[in-house]
Amino acid sequence: MAKRKPMKKPMKKLGKIGKQNIKSTIRLKAEYQKRGITTCELCGSDFGLSFHHRYQRYYYIDKPELLGDFNQSLLLCIPCHKKLHEDKELNKETFNKLR
Length: 99
What we know:
Number of helices: 3
Mean pLDDT: 87
Structural class: mainly alpha
Helix content: 25-40%
Radius of gyration: 16 Å
Strand order of the largest sheet: 1-2
Number of strands: 2
Low-confidence stretches: none
Number of domains: 1
Strand content: 5-15%
Largest sheet: 2 strands, antiparallel
């Protein structure tokens, strides 16, 4: 029986902010590694890490260069990331404390 090739999923169209987000993620990864930050900045977990930005994505439409700014982001695990999205005051306090 012949092997089937995996189906290719069509790429979604990336807008200006999407393309900038990809570039900024690369810059942020390098910056965090340079600073030795490799775990969640709130709880210390090293599982399911992603960048959390200070403001919602639409804020960066006119300021896409800020997406890759260290002071505009935190490295968080999934549960901590979710907490900051759910609580705007906690988000503000966390950024004020850590940045």
